[in-house]
Amino acid sequence: MKPKLHLEPAEINRSLRMVIIDGLCSEVVVCLSSGAILVGAALLLGASNFQIGLLASFPTLCNLAQLLTILLIQRYPNRKLITVLAVFLAKMPLLIIGIVLWRNTQLSFSILLVFMFIHYFLSAIGGAGWNAWIKDLVPEQQLGTYFSKRTRLMQLTNIAVSLAVAALVDYYTKYKGDELPNLYGIYFFAAGLIGAIGAFFLIQASEPKQEISGGNLGRLLLEPLKNTNFKNLLIFNAAWVLAINLAIPFFTVFMLQTLGLSMKVVILLTVVSQIASVAGLPLWGKLSDRYSNKSIIYLTAPIYICCILLWIFVGIYSRALPNLILLVVLHIMTGISTGGINLALTNIGLKLAPKTDAIIYITVKNMVASFFTALGPILGGLLVDYFATRELQISISWKSPNLESVAKLIYLHEWNFLFLLASILSFFSLRWLGKVQENGEVSHQLVKRIMKKRFRAGLKERLLVGNIITLHAQLKQILKRKELPTKE
């Protein structure tokens, strides 16, 4: 259990495998106790928009508990022990929620809030130690490749579990509505149990010896703010997560309540997004290690912003098919861009944090991002309630003796106002990214040209179209060879 001064390559590889297995267990926990399932349970208990926003803010708001992790590690310099113990204890509230729901005991939304707060609070304590531990465990030149592999496997697990979860929720909703709380109880209990099993694998990973300064906690927390480059990263990260989290937590509520989609359809759309993310992660991982994380953000963030903006057109017409097609396209593009953005934000934070006091820098980054990520859903919930009685409609009408038609161009109401505001704010947040300096930084324009060149080369090599495109050049070369004089 004690940290080691030096780890052999075989020991590092085995530890990284254990971290991946724990990650797979953690992803099952996410599938069974968060996202659409948590929103569904909250709606079942009669939660309001503001309450759902408050619940969505807990995972990041509780990251302030990472301050406690620093104090614990200063006194007991064993990140592995602190992390594993916190991760294990964090699953106990999920077991309690599961038992209460499964036994049909009356559960108020307030009690659900309390237990989920405890779950996220303890998870945050473990998360701080985990981040610093993994930074020292994973070789820096392999950060992109390793985390893209780990994330890819976790998302594949998420897809498989989500499909089964969606099918059961849809079945119970249609045929066994009275027993739906029992199903949610099974989900939360299974999440707690599998999460505890993940802690068993995590404890088998080795921990390198850390370097951390002693002294006053307040002084240590100010150190990252004195680093101009890291401070610029904090400002960009805060502006970005605040902007996008005005809207993201409410996509599920919008689809369930306004569009009237079933839980199965909502989770299937989430699966589509995850498949797209899995498909793009190997590319983003290689580009992260070879070029820079900033270039990945510059490439993927505009796509993500456009996706948020296009949500204002979802539901503008009552026909289901156009809405469903647009939702599928949005989830595909969101998945591709999200995979790159999340990977790059994680890696750039790990790269810019110095080896000494890495946990301080990472914790400050997580705390700043957590505060603004938590603030986003709370403000979003208030804005939705404010815009609930307001709407803006722009349309074109045509009248003739035989035809009278009205075509909606823009129809903004409670949710769409929120999506428009989030897309505008996220666009302006990119201005701060240019001030961040990253080691080995490469222009995103160069990376874009390289990607275009590889894409075209792939078409020529793998597809028949490539041969057709170069057919004229091949014929020209043949004719030139025929025109060459022969030697006597």
From TrEMBL:
Record-level Gene Ontology MF annotations: transmembrane transporter activity
Keyword set, alphabetical order: Membrane, Transmembrane, Transmembrane helix
Keyword Transmembrane part of the UniProt annotation: yes
Transmembrane feature ranges: 20-46, 52-74, 81-102, 108-133, 153-172, 184-203, 234-259, 265-284, 296-318, 324-345, 366-389, 409-430
Coiled coil (residue ranges): none
InterPro entries assigned to the protein according to its UniProt record, in alphabetical order: MFS (IPR011701), MFS_trans_sf (IPR036259), Sugar_transport-like (IPR052528)
SUPFAM superfamilies: MFS general substrate transporter
Protein name in UniProt: MFS transporter
